[in-house]
Amino acid sequence: MTERHEQLLPLARRERLLIEKLSDEVLVYDLDRKKAHCLNQTAALIWNHCDGQTSLEEMAVVLQEQSEVKVDHDVVWYGLDQLRRARLVEESVAMPNGATKVSRRELIRRLGLAVAVPTVASILAPKASAALSCVVPCAVPANCVAPCTICTAGICA
Amino acid sequence: MSSGPLTRVLSLAWREGPEAIDISAEELTEVSPLLLGSGTGALVWHRIRNSNLRSSPVAFQFQQAYRQHTLEAARHERDIVSIVAAMRSRGIDPILIKGWSIARLYPEKGMRPYDDTDLVVRCNQYSSALAVTENQSVTEFSVDLHEGLEEFGYHGEEDFFANSQLVKLGEVDVRVPAPEDSLRVISLHLLQHGAFRPLWLCDVALAVESRTPAFDWDRCLGRNKRVADWVACTIGLAHQLLGARIDDTPVKHRADNLPSWLIPTVLKQWEKPFAKDHGVARHRAPMASYLRNPSGFLRDLRTRWPNPIEATVYVGGPFNEFPRLPFQIGDCVARTAKFVARLPKAFREAR
């Protein structure tokens, strides 16, 4: 199984994504699917190392160096699976035969620290009309009243 | 300073490191629909993330708002770069007002949401600019094009354009108003919409506090004394309701002595800080439709009754201690006259 892990070199998807790095997480907006995701530090670290050159074993070593808990490739697998579900890795990262699928609960139990478990959470898509001053649909300018008197693209502006 | 839970949460929230917050988790939960629904969720997260309230159940919603607005801002910035580049390629140099031009002053880009791009173009370039916005498919959000600046009390555009500034956004230099003009525009915009959105007052507070020593108050307030007083009163609202620092400004005296009806009016508006309850959004149907089908006319008339602030500004009245009723009636009369004057054209267009 270790051999197979070493052969797998995941590649992060970078096209058509908007990426915002915050102090303790990374936000990603998928322009194609119009979905927003929030990667915690562990997931972001795995994603950053999906460069098509780093094996799972190497990722586990990097994670191990940057956290105070013991990290094995199950953790990396779990993170990759999360990234795969969010379509943030280039190709489907299939779990090799014989690899065990661990649950989030199992990982928390093993690591003893919930924040160390890689998490890719969805963020509800922003509403487009939350802060508009003028939001009334119109067919002709007479439908609009001040201060939004111009009927443009079907909306009083 | 007014001490309701909503104003206490938002007070000084625009600052880099806001002071400790004096509000209970219960109070925060109680006002959370108003805060989240009116676009101040990210500001609240900025306010509470280093406090004990961070672990309160309602805090997650504010954090989500902050995340949403951060990504939304990134999407808007792409739009701005695209539309400004498209305009420039046709020889149009627009000025971006409100929205990003004020959001960029906040400590983080996700703190201040906005939903469209407001561009002011010279009157003689308006039709070309409109063609650009209508024919382009590069922007994700809507572009709100303004023809000149009369709605903000400017009688000429030359001076406004001459004093504008270029600010870097990615690979593009975006033209924004001079800080003096920006403060004037956001103050008048707030009043024209009856001050219903608390976020707009945070913008005013931020614009006042982020000004440089070279800030030209004469330019900001302008020559028209009435408009200057409106702007001064708006700054006064930011001071009295949200704690904006105004000690060293020429409007301090006025800011400390606002008309007695002004703050209660704003606080009443903030009980419903959602766009759907204000402006034309609250109307049930276009007035012209009642000519054919009068049912519901009287009920709709009630929803069109203007608030004292927007009525006073609409008819160009003073912010003094006199009752606001005459201005509200004047507002209705003026709007009705405008409606009647537009009827023939509306009929022609409807045919």
What does it look like?
The complex is a heterodimer of chains A (157) and B (351). Chain A has 157 residues and is of the alpha+beta class. Chain A folds into two domains: 2-123; 128-157, no CATH class. Chain A has helices at residues 2-7, 41-48, 56-66, 73-85, 104-111, and strands at 17-21, 25-30, 35-40, 120-123, 151-152, 155-156. A four-stranded antiparallel sheet of chain A has the order 1-2-3-4. A two-stranded antiparallel sheet of chain A has the order 5-6. In chain A, β1 and β2 form a beta hairpin. The termini of chain A are far apart. Residues 1-6, 128-137 and 153-157 of chain A have low confidence and may be disordered. By secondary structure, chain B is mainly α. The N and C termini of chain B lie far apart (55 Å). Chain B has helices at 5-10, 25-37, 41-48, 59-88, 99-103, 126-135, 158-162, 179-192, 198-209, 217-221, 225-242, 252-256, 262-269, 289-292, 297-303, 308-314, 325-350, and strands at residues 95-97, 116-121, 142-147, 165-169, 172-176. The A-B interface holds A 18, 20, 22, 27-29, 36, 38, 123-126, 128-136, 138-148, 150, 152-153, 155-157 and B 37, 39, 64, 67-72, 74-75, 78, 109-110, 113-116, 130, 133-134, 141-142, 144-145, 151, 189, 192-193, 197, 199, 275-276, 279-281, 283, 286, 288, 314, 335, 338-339, 342-343, 345-346, 349-350.
Overview features:
heterodimer, A: 157 residues, alpha+beta, 2 domains, 4-stranded antiparallel β-sheet, two-stranded antiparallel sheet, 16% strand, globular, disordered N terminus, B: 351 residues, mainly alpha, 3-stranded mixed β-sheet, 17 helices, 52% helix
Describe how the helices and strands are arranged.
The complex is a heterodimer of chains A (157) and B (351).
Chain A: H1 2-7, E1 17-21, E2 25-30, E3 35-40, H2 41-48, H3 56-66, H4 73-85, H5 104-111, E4 120-123, E5 151-152, E6 155-156
Chain B: H1 5-10, H2 25-37, H3 41-48, H4 59-88, E1 95-97, H5 99-103, E2 116-121, H6 126-135, E3 142-147, H7 158-162, E4 165-169, E5 172-176, H8 179-192, H9 198-209, H10 217-221, H11 225-242, H12 252-256, H13 262-269, H14 289-292, H15 297-303, H16 308-314, H17 325-350
Helix pairs in contact in B: 3-4, 8-9, 8-11, 9-11, 16-17
